[in-house]
Amino acid sequence: MLPSILDVDVRGKRLLVRADLNVPMDGSTITDATRIDRFADGMRPLLARGARLVIVTHFGRPRANEHDPAYSVDKLRDRLAEALGVPVRFSDTVATDGAVLHSETLRDGEALLCENLRYNPGETANDPAFSAALARLGDLYVNDAFSCAHRAHASTEGITRHLPAYPGPLLLEEVTALTAALDSPRRPAVAIVGGSKVSTKIAVLKNLVAKVDHVIIGGGMANTFLYAHGAPMGASLHEADQIGTVREIEAAARAAGCQIHLPVDVVAASTFAANAPHDCVAATACPEGAMILDAGPEATERFARVLESCTTILWNGPLGAFELAPFDRATMALARRAAELTRRGRAVSVAGGGDTVAALNAAGVAQDFTYVSAAGGAFLEWLEGRTLPGIAALMRADQAA
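The structure corresponding to this sequence follows.
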């Protein structure tokens, strides 16, 4: 297990903290401050113990060397200060003499936010010179951005070659939760995997069937599996060229003793719109010209019974077009059943991925899950069984210490 920065004497130390404060905005208004709030929760105890925080983050995808003010992180400062409970200074540059001077004038319990990392091309290029310049901002490095750990960037990988490196509280919490759910789950374990395309989650499915006892497949992915078994698709989203992949995944599941669960009935409509006229039909009887937009009630109940038989639930991807009522029913029902099992202490539940988090929030149950990851790409790569560069860098730094 990686050492925690919470176990280090941080008084008087400049902590160069890689955060992910890439929050959604509407103009100058933050529409969802969850990432800021979760980051601040982990940082406040460090501030209380006398740490001097130097916070770096990316925001959006500005063109390198073009300091477009639309991507300035200064607009995050007031909300960050509110969450941290201390004023936050600002440096309009990062990895420069001016930024270093700002960091050196910090006092115990104070915080500094530096300008968008991605204004400098050295960040995404993992340029050694940029990493070395960043290192001048701190005495210790703290990676608290699991959602960026799948990127070998200067602020996630290169920096660990220059400073003693530690995981932050949020990153360590995430790694602990995901490891427990995937690498050493309480058995039996089930994974719910949804989304539009099998082709984007081949590696996820192949890894999961070797790690869990049951895999429930929903969304457009389920359509492709059903198509591979001869079910008509009408106008449904599916990948006709992925039949071979389906066969491979099913063979891997049989070899591992993992049972794959597909919808036995579906909800089909002729138009992709909220409250469109729809019918519930057998999964093998999609009408010509209709689209499968959700799992049916019988399938939902069968999936729920699988959840009730398991003690670990891992979720990535909705079961249908959850953003359109009434095609959100299967996702909502299963989310509430998983939450109920978690509240009763019957299951450990871990979920992640943008659509998944949105669905759990829509169902009003995100707070009831054991852990909900805000990471997107990093969460998927973890599910694929990959070693994330940012995590590998922390492990290397720990071994070298």
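The first strand starts at residue 14 and ends at 18.
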